[in-house]
Amino acid sequence: MSSGVADSLTRKGMQQLLAAVGSRPTEKTAQVETTEYDWYDPHYFSAHEISKLEEYAEVATRAMARRLSDFCHSRFEVTITSISQHFASKLSVTISSAQNSDYFVPFGTDPEHPCGFVGMPEQTAIAWAREVLGDSESNNDSPGVLSALEESLLLDLSSPLVEAFSNSGAVCDFCLTGSVVRGWLPLAFRGIEELCKMSLELKKADSQDSLAAYLVIPCRELDTVAQKTTRADEEYSESEVSKAILDHLKRMTVSITAQLASTTLTFGQIMNLQVNDMLMLDKAVDEPIELIVGERALYSGWPAKSAGRYAVTISATAIGDRSLGQSVRSHRTQ
After folding, report:
1. What are the tens digits of pLDDT across the range 132-177?
2. Which sign, positive or negative, has the C-alpha torsion 152, 122, 61, 180?
3. Quick check: helix, strand or coil at residue 28?
4. pTM score, two decimals?
5. Which of 3.30.450.20, 2.30.330.10, 1.10.357.140, 3.40.50.720 is the CATH number of 253-332?
6. Which tens digits make up the pLDDT trace of 229-238?
7. Burial, 22: exposed, middle or buried (Cβ in 10 Å; 0-12, 13-18, 19+)?
């Protein structure tokens, strides 16, 4: 390096240095589509399993439409609007905003073991009851509490929905397990229990108005429907888990850097570097170079060439848990 070194940097010199450091163009990276992962919602079902649920739901809604049409003697259309996964505690809070007016009908495998429920906003419940009573021309927006007769009719109307859902693929065996309740959820779910909510839209074929309803059921009850085949954690042995982890690690790619040597200069010295100057590094010529992985020197070796490219001949492995600085010092003392 030239012997003449400026003791101070001019403003222009500093601007030139900063411009040089920051002048490298930003590397263009390929745009990768990503999906935001919401930790507040469960991911019990994969995207593929959700698609299987949607296929089943399409079949079930067609069966629901037929059952309702037969029961009400008027053609109905039923469509699935969404399938979502929720933790029980969060879903309870979501429903609670309308809980004072929503009606619920529990269902399960038998009266002693309810596992889910049909939920209906007040407007849907009233409209359904009036449809069966032949009073569909009344103002459906008028608030009110269903009479015992109307609740009984609502129960009768809910039965075809549950039966159609249960029998569409012969994989569930659900039936109504209780009476209509209003103002409180008919089941007590655990806070982190994973629930599936299927939202429905119901509409008479000759009407533009639609009504909403939904089914809530624990995700585990739909494993067969979704063709979920994931093995339970306890089914894996320790050796299987270890092998899976090791196989994954072996496939990971890691960058490795061959570091010749380094030195420290002041800004003034850097600004005075010229073509053909010789820069003295902090390593003797008979010392090996380090191969750096992350921030650790894991190997040492000698510069070489192969097929016209730079290469390194590994001469030693370095090091266990020592830091990069310790690794470098250890090589210098060899």
Report:
1. 777 655 444 445 678 888 888 888 888 888 888 888 765 568 888 8
2. negative
3. coil
4. 0.57
5. 2.30.330.10
6. 765 555 677 8
7. exposed
